């Protein structure tokens, strides 16, 4: 369907990738993988014709249609959900209008025997057959099936699109692309704004209805369920693995190990040949053998080992002023959009230093309550922000708010003040924007890179209340881990809106669940919350909550939780705290042991250097110290193994 040959893309001195060649075939389900900034989104733009490569060819047959869902897109706000989705069938509606005009013309005319009338009838017949082949009027039912599959209710169809959050509007765009039934689907992070039911529906749709798919996603389960081929963009090239993602991970590891073994064997062979040449170069009796070895050395083709990109961003929130004891207090807060009540009777208190999670399906009011806290929208009830609270806000659409026509450096230079202006290059380097990369324009950055750039802007102002709305949407696994550790080390209070249970695990100590117009408080971490619902993931837990419509009214809201639920929550919380205490104790034992080993190794190196000196060869004090040190080092190494095994056992409990 699409043929790529000798592709090269340059944004600076160093190519993004070069000499890339592959073919997208019918029924291919391709996962495009690589670190943030490797060029995944760029490659998708090139495949759909939105961007031109520096060099190479992309061949797309004339009759091949392509549907492209970008990470960031400009959305329309002037229609209803169904009217906007109906735009996917613009060709159908135009053809339908043309048929109606021809039908009216045939009814008005009376020259039935004329050639022009016969031509009109023939043209109408042809166009009508084409219209029926395109689905006729069945597209209305198809629109409804797709919207419901992506999580919309029938009551949403006639609601204006501007009443929906960004996540729901992205679902509308996805629905329009799927309804066009293109030959090749290019999807850039399609699951970022979907809940579990919608993801499962999309998996089924792609498996049954799509012709060819190329997708970028950080959702490992989604990739495994959909794809049968993996293209890895790594260190300027593309490796093609015709297997699913899990199999690719195994094959990639095996491939690198084989390369390393072959490389080591070749290096040994080269060293042996060079040693022979150096040893016998000037011996006349070995001249023939030396020349043979020289020719053999020249014929050796060096084995290349895949580079492993180990760059990670370094993130640390700056020190902040001490806020009041209660940064956020909600009392009977309510928010309505016209006749639609998003939530009401919201009552809770967030204490200083707490890390809390907001969880709930899209449209249940998580981002809306965040905007109320930020003072961006009006609401009913009482919402107090504590004394001396300084808020740092990372919005879902933060990447879209960046100016696209300026460079990375200028983006930060425009907001940095005082001493921070002297540290811009250091900060950019810590976020993997060092060197010439800082001169890239924002418009060429990937979603992950834009998220990192937006995070730098957040760090420029010391804050004591962090509000992060889906901060991991465009981040790869290593970057998620770095962000998580930075939030854990943050001195202030944090509110995190996220569906990512692995990210929230060990990070939050309280969960606020949004659903059915209510907000419920759950003490303990995210796994305590899941355990209380007997669910494996957040979306499954939220589905169980939405199914209990009959008992929703009877369930207590925040501030009036039942004694039994609160007791169970406290018990789970206590167990979680005790578990964390054991883990910290085991980690400290390992770390202390490693410190002692490092000191002993350092002293061993010093004694080794002294004993290499002829003057100290018979120094009995040094020899005795060395013997005792080696015994101590052996004992510490045994202790380290024991402590490590104990830590592993505690972590598995």
UniProtKB/TrEMBL annotation:
PANTHER family: ABC TRANSPORTER ATP-BINDING SUBUNIT, DRUG RESISTANCE ABC TRANSPORTER,ATP-BINDING PROTEIN. InterPro entries: AAA+_ATPase (IPR003593), ABC_tran_Xtn (IPR032781), ABC_transporter-like_ATP-bd (IPR003439), ABC_transporter-like_CS (IPR017871), ABCF_ATPase (IPR051309), P-loop_NTPase (IPR027417). Gene3D superfamilies: P-loop containing nucleotide triphosphate hydrolases. SMART domains: AAA. It holds the Pfam family ABC_tran_Xtn. It comes from Prevotella illustrans. This is ABC-F family ATP-binding cassette domain-containing protein. Keywords: ATP-binding, Nucleotide-binding. GO terms for molecular function: ATP binding. The keyword Nucleotide-binding applies. Residues 552-570 have a biased composition (Polar residues). Residues 2-260, 328-541 form the ABC transporter domain. It comes from the Bacteria. Residues 552-578 are annotated as: Disordered. The keyword Nucleotide-binding applies.
